[in-house]
Amino acid sequence: MTVTSAADASLRHRYAEAFLTVRRGDGAPLADTEVTVAQTRHAFSFGNIGFDLVAHANGETEADPDSPFGGAPPASGEHLAALWLDLFNTATLPFYWAGFEPRRGTPDTTRLLRAARWFAERGVTVKGHPLAWHTLAPDWLLDVPTDEVETLLRERIRREVSDFAGVVDVWDAINEVVIMPVFSNEERRNAITRLCWERGRIPTVRLAFEEARAANPSATLLLNDFNLSPAFECLVEGVLEAGIRVDAIGLQSHMHQGYWGEERTLETLDRFARFGLPLHLTESTLLSGDLMPADVVDLNDHQVESWPTTPEGEERQAQEIVRHYRTLVSHPAVEAVTYWGLTDEGSWLGAPVGLVRADGSTKPSFDALHGLLKDEWWLAPTTLRTDAEGRVSVRGFRGEYAVSASGARAAFTLDRDGDVEVTLPAS
Q1: Which candidate, 294, 217, 220, 210, places its Cα nearest to that of 259?
Q2: Distance from CA of residue 136 to its chain's centroid?
Q3: Secondary structure of residue 155 in the 3-state scheme
Q4: Tens digit of pLDDT for each residue in 379-414?
Q5: DSSP secondary structure string for all residues of 309-339
Q6: I need a surface site. Which of 146, 165, 218, 235 has the fewest CB within 10 A?
Q7: Phi and psi torsions of 402, nearest 5°
Q8: Domains in the chain, ordered, with CATH?
Q9: CA–CA distance, 90 with 123 (Å, rounded to integer)
């Protein structure tokens, strides 16, 4: 069914092989008949941010000059949507409190819900980012007493998780807690840092997870951070020892200062895999231009007038993105990776992280990732003939598949080795 390369030995856990029995509507085996088998979705979550498509999903034609989310202008929406949907199956949408509710009592629920439904209607899993975070807390919280800040944060979490339940069921429940109580920024004060300082990290984590869990018991909730040092390991240990249920650990990997390489990546994954929780690489980036200087501590401090993509950088990015994804997918604990930006236009910090240039043309990295996800790790429509018992052998990347014959079609899941049966609807 599929041709495997030598590199596939490290990905054996991502594949499944099954004998598929195809039956007619009356239950009889579809014997000695040509059928077409094709993959329709990966079980692994290959994601990207959906910020660029919020305006497009809402039918908007003008960019919002006050939007804190950045992203490409609405005019690029249709083109970018086609590229996005051709490659990814999971979208992260922006729920930064300062932008979602810039004025108290006026949340942007309708607009974000329309965008979330737009993705969901196209078979995309939608994730919200984040429910609690200090950096983009709203200014109107600044003069609110801490007890009331806690009450408002609880209400905000319950509201968003409840309003979006069934459409957005995956959330970064809380973001960057390691630095949260000691965060210092002369240009921007915030009330969430004050709350976390006075209550403590673990009680603040508990607040976020318990409110989100109460609002949607079936939601997948992440503890997400960019600080992947032992400090985050200690936090995870403390959170779990406190009895807080965490569904997955979110690891950011903005590689603006250069690709980590396989050894560092695997060492990082192993350190966090020891907790026995799924790992989500929530924010991955690789540059296609000049790298950020190594002495920059806070990536936000690197501000340049122009940060262009370059031919040499694009070739480097294409090679590194393949290495990065192969490494992540090879690790059994990893179940999701989200690339942080489809296009350079409106990208975070103006960095050339996108897979698409600002003019809308694809970079080599887009083609390289497409070749990996939709060629090497994907089963294209393949015609086979069933045996006398209506069986064919199917081997492919774990995920969703479809089998069709004579105009009838049925879906099935390939998630383990074994036998699978499907019944084609009567034509």
Answers
A1: 294
A2: 20
A3: helix
A4: 999 999 999 999 999 999 999 999 999 999 999 999
A5: B-HHHHHHHHHHHHHHHHHHHHSTTEEEEEE
A6: 218
A7: -140, 145
A8: 6-33+386-423 (2.60.40), 45-376 (3.20.20.80)
A9: 9
